[in-house]
Amino acid sequence: MARIAVGGFQHETNTFAPSKATYDDFLRPGAWPGLTRGEGLFEAVAGINIGIAGFVEAAQAQGHTLVPLAWTQATPSAHVTEDAYERVVGQIVEDLEKLEDLDGLYLDLHGAMVAEHVDDGEGEMLRRIRAAVGLGLPIVVSLDLHANVTAEMVEHADCLEIYRTYPHVDMAATGKRSAAQLDALIDGGGGRHKAFRQLPFMIPLTSGCTLHGPAQAVYAEVRRLAKAPGVSAISFACGFCPADFPDAGASLVAYGDTQAAADAAAEALYDAALGREEAFALVALPADEAVREAMRLAAGANKPVVLADAQDNAGGGANSDTTGLLRALLAQRAEGAVVANLYDPAAAEAAHAAGEGATVSLTLGGHSGVPGDAPLQADFKVLRLGDGRVTGTGPFYKGAHMQLGRTALLELDGVKVAIASSKIQLADQAMLRHLGVEPAQQKILALKSSVHFRADFQPIAEEILVVASPGPVVLDNRELPFQRLRPGLRIMPLGEVFQP
Ligand SMILES: [Zn+2]
């Protein structure tokens, strides 16, 4: 039986987003628990679809002794502040330095964290942790499919295991795979030879969905190669594009019993992805066109047409308060449409003060200064109020105890808008039921999410249309003012090459 330390520090950093992640943001629970250090950690994450929960369950079943470190996450945003980064990494390193007789370390990281003072958040964290625990201790790290993997991360961890699904329905499963990898490494196996490759093109966010198309095929190849002779682990990361630093983009990492085995698997996966470059092209509609098409489809459907307000997704760093898609629905009188969730704590407060059935005059949304967006000034009817406590029931947010803060369902000209006081992407039907909206019975659902909503909503949807209305999760990378990518990287599939 082994003695294993367990912790995590997760942030997906959109360096073009409007707000930074402070220490306070890491303290507060959102979709998942806030900062939890030491005792109480395993209880706080139990049963949730996240990496650490899967790891703990699998490692405890093996009879290992687990030592809790710090674990935290914050909603994606712009840079993690230097203060937050140093405090959280400091806690993990400080606790590790006090521990003796460890056999292994598991960390639940994201892989696309950029701090104010550190480009490669995870690489630097792993460098410090490796310095603290020494070269001999096996370290396994699980990462998000949107990790921007760096050579430093590969160097300082013995194995990186990356999610294989987007929507990420396999976060806990990836934790379980990580537990198996750590077991093998502790037993002296596990394949210590590494091969790391970065792809020469960026994959637009919504093109990384593994429910169809090229990403589905690439991850089928990952699963096949993971079982190849001499290969102990292999992972592919689609990368997170809105991160202006040299390691942004798709990558892969393979581990083998020999360098030749690791290299061969890496080359095969590289070719599988590169050969599908054209198929990764972006498909998205402007808001007015998307609404027109949704109304046409909805007229003959008995299931909802879902519009993905993909660029205003809180899960990608947005504040989820832009009004572009809402305006398009109002302009075309899309009665029966439901917009969810628009982040506006002041509007939620005003709705609660007015009460259900009242009419409130609001300056709704548009507070983030997103180019092309503005608040919507109107009188809304307050249909329903909520306390924002929601437990996820869908495959992505399964078991998550979300705290949306004060919520409200408003109505204007037959269009409903769900308001929340914390930024959590709309990726679970329970978030709508919380306000009395039965998702399957709606005509049009306009959801502030890029892809994760598909896990719970695709089964009830007549059709899903990806919308490009104002928001900082820019899908077409040509619109991002990149300055620091690596020269030669194609910023869109078969698209233009970045030159500094
Ligand atoms: Zn992700």
From TrEMBL:
<keyword id="KW-0479">Metal-binding</keyword>
<dbReference type="InterPro" id="IPR010799">
    <property type="entry name" value="MlrC_C"/>
</dbReference>
<keyword id="KW-0482">Metalloprotease</keyword>
<dbReference type="GO" id="GO:0046872">
    <property type="term" value="F:metal ion binding"/>
</dbReference>
<dbReference type="InterPro" id="IPR009197">
    <property type="entry name" value="MlrC"/>
</dbReference>
<feature type="domain" description="Microcystin LR degradation protein MlrC C-terminal">
    <location>
        <begin position="307"/>
        <end position="484"/>
    </location>
</feature>
<dbReference type="GO" id="GO:0008237">
    <property type="term" value="F:metallopeptidase activity"/>
</dbReference>
<keyword id="KW-0645">Protease</keyword>
<dbReference type="Pfam" id="PF07171">
    <property type="entry name" value="MlrC_C"/>
</dbReference>
<feature type="domain" description="Microcystin LR degradation protein MlrC N-terminal">
    <location>
        <begin position="3"/>
        <end position="295"/>
    </location>
</feature>
<dbReference type="GO" id="GO:0006508">
    <property type="term" value="P:proteolysis"/>
</dbReference>
<dbReference type="Pfam" id="PF07364">
    <property type="entry name" value="DUF1485"/>
</dbReference>
<comment type="function">
    <text>Involved in peptidolytic degradation of cyclic heptapeptide hepatotoxin microcystin (MC).</text>
</comment>
<dbReference type="InterPro" id="IPR015995">
    <property type="entry name" value="MlrC_N"/>
</dbReference>
<comment type="similarity">
    <text>Belongs to the peptidase M81 family.</text>
</comment>
<keyword id="KW-0378">Hydrolase</keyword>
<protein>
    <recommendedName>
        <fullName>Microcystinase C</fullName>
    </recommendedName>
</protein>
